[in-house]
Specification:
alpha/beta; Rossmann fold; 2 domains
Amino acid sequence: MKILIPYDITTTGMKNPFLYLLMRDLAKQELISSIQHGYGWLYEPDVFDVVHLHWPELLVKSQLPDMSRTDQISQHHFDRVLRAVEHRKKQGTKFVITIHNEKPHRDKQGLFENYFGDLYQLMDGFIHMGESSKLLLEKNFPNESDGNPSFIIPHGDYSFFADDLTREECRKRIGTQPGQKLMLTFGAIRDENELNLGIDTFKKADVENSVYLMAGSLPYPYKSQPKHFTVRKKLYASYFDNSIKTAEHPIAPEEVQLYLKSADLVFIPRFNTLNSGNVALGFTFGKVVTGPGYGVIGETLTAADNPVFDPYKLDSVAEAIREGFRLAEKGHGQKNKEFAGREMSWKNIARKTAEAYQKVLQK
């Protein structure tokens, strides 16, 4: 099989190596003769057996000089993607999509709503990271998903990242004191609600000798932005007790272990979010993880006996934090690491993905 994954993939400076890790192991599969990547290949005349899509919005944004300028998106950007898919399908190419999100992040204007449905209508198969994803797609897009096969293939692990320092070395480098219990939120905190959810519930949980560290990006990072101080009001007020800390900068791949190995508990401050790579990341590094009991996040955490919460009920979140710390003390993180090794192996994920391609071609 000749496969196209029409996204730009790099092995250096990456925020999320998901596609690289998938392609790395797909290239080893006997069923696959070649695999290509890059946005432009979607519009080239080369014939592929299967095109594997991931984030539909990126296919549109990739046509812009600046992918962050969604205000520059016009209907012809959507039409170009849909025409390319339709053209390839007429040539016999099959299309498979992995469902990462129910809808794009930061799409308050609903720019992509119709486009998602139009694109799903053209798919020949759907890959989900959990059963709850399949059920939500069937609920939200019943006509588009009807009649096409679905495959449950979990998120892969993050053993790609360096893991060659001791916990003590990592804690010393990020300034965590001996004996402190560290709750970590890693990556992007997208808005004020997510920011305050972590701050409010960490305080409410009131776990002795605990620290909350947010490492990555926070909303409205520049003081020149009008909302910077209003959105961060609780954050600034919390600095005085020294139990809430930030490391607000891009985390280099070699630095990931500093934060994950230092942590006792990984906290995912999401609301109605379908998937999060932080589940796999926390499990890979042998950490207890807590997050919302929604979608694949809740499904995976529950399957591995980690605490989940209702993000709209602060008491629920605070109790999940307390339980997370208790489980960490009992060594539950090691069970999560074993779960990742068993359920999130890229070798197995690539095999299942190649088999999904083959089944779609046989439709």
